[in-house]
Amino acid sequence: MPAFKTLDDLGDIKGKRVLVRVDLNVPVAEGKVTDTTRIERVAPTIQELSDKGAKVILLAHFGRPKGGPEAEFSLKVVVSSVEAVLGRTVNFAEDCIGDKAASAIDGLKVGGILLLENTRFHKGEEKNEPDFVKALAANGDIFVNDAFSAAHRAHASTEGLAHHLPAYAGRTMQAELEALEKGLGNPTRPVVAIVGGAKVSSKIDLLQNLVKKVDALVIGGGMANTFLAAQGIDVGKSLCEHDLADTARAILAEAKSAGCDIVLPSDGVVAREFKANAANETVSVSAIPADAMMLDVGPKSVDAVNAWISKGATLVWNGPLGAFEITPFDAATVAAAKHAAEETKAGKLVSVAGGGDTVAALNHAGVADDFTYISTAGGAFLEWMEGKPLPGVEVLKK
How far apart are CA 225 and CA 238, in angstroms? Predict the structure, then answer.
């Protein structure tokens, strides 16, 4: 049983006002939503509550308005896309508190759906101000949080409300938390983590937490160069944070004492310029030319990564192995992703991945649907991997 209440714990909610925190912070270009993934993720919760006769009142933020209403950050722009995904009418209120919200809620029929205006139009949202929380709470009888991606922030609509109303996890939040529990909370071993991306500096907390929790840690991307350089390897003109050599060595030492295998590239694909289809060659990491940069890990390194994926029972993935945005430097990421997908489909692996670049890389490899779970949350997924408590989750615990 999960340690938090879910929609299964709700009694009869016919006619009840249910405030649902969702993530509708979707990309918009020329007044049109260009990617409805986040809307699709919250649709099951909204539809289930509506079908049970609740008055469904959606709370969301959109963009970063500077402490007051700004037309370009109005949630009105997403209404038609939400309607299209849900296949239902969605009403809109021009404020999230006060008379405008109250009269729109009063006019809602049983099973009706209403989107309230951007919570960040009020300064009290991000400050989690008690008066603003109370004003939000006045709109509902029950609070459902279905926005894991905002759960690392203690805002009024993500954390504050749960202290004023009976609080439950929506279906997406529930799926996310159950997947993360399988990933690192209480995983089946061996656990393998793949961490890539450009910089060690942005992932120090993550690496320090993972070496204590996983059996093998694969380090790829630009980060790998920093670890190689810290061991005295000349990485030429590769992206590298030489000032973090001591940090890298400390993480390697910590991994050793925790019994975690660190998997660094043994070979790499190098080029003299950072562009698609640049002239390139595969070399041992000990033979990177002084005027070249490593833009992907090589085939021997991929074999080592795939061997660990085969050995593992659980895989947690954050960040690509190389510069996957440009060919042919996407080869390693695609090969490892396809192997992980095959192991998952064969029932041999629980695979959990997250973070913006990671989702893009797995989509690029064409295997996103084959992973056990892909988190669309960026910061919240990273903080969870770092072992930090997430305010929006902690407050839902029984």
Answer: 7
112 is catalytic: no
Identify whether 1 is part of a domain: no
Q: Active site residue: 53, 98, 356, 378, which one?
A: 356
Task: Count the domains in the chain.
Answer: 2
Q: Are 195 and 164 members of one domain?
A: no
Q: What's the pLDDT tens digit per position in 73-114? A: 999 999 999 999 999 999 999 999 999 999 999 999 999 999
The whole domain housing 285 covers 187-385
Q: Which of 21, 38, 55, 203 is catalytic?
A: 38
Residues in contact with 254: Cβ distance below 8 Å, sequence separation at least 6, in sequence order: 208, 211, 212
Task: List the catalytic residue out of 53, 379, 387, 388.
Answer: 379
Q: Which pLDDT band, with edges at 50, 70 and 90, does 398 fall under?
A: low
Cis before 166? omega within 30:
no
Q: Is 379 a catalytic residue?
A: yes
Can 249 be counted among the known catalytic residues?
no
DSSP 8-class letter at 389? P
Verify that 212 and 74 share a domain, yes or no.
Answer: no
Could you confirm whether 356 is annotated as catalytic?
yes
pLDDT (tens digit per residue) in 238-274: 999 999 999 999 999 999 999 999 999 999 999 999 9
What's the distance, CA 87 to chain centroid? 26
212 shares its domain with 71: no
User: Is there a single domain that holds both residue 191 and residue 332?
Assistant: yes
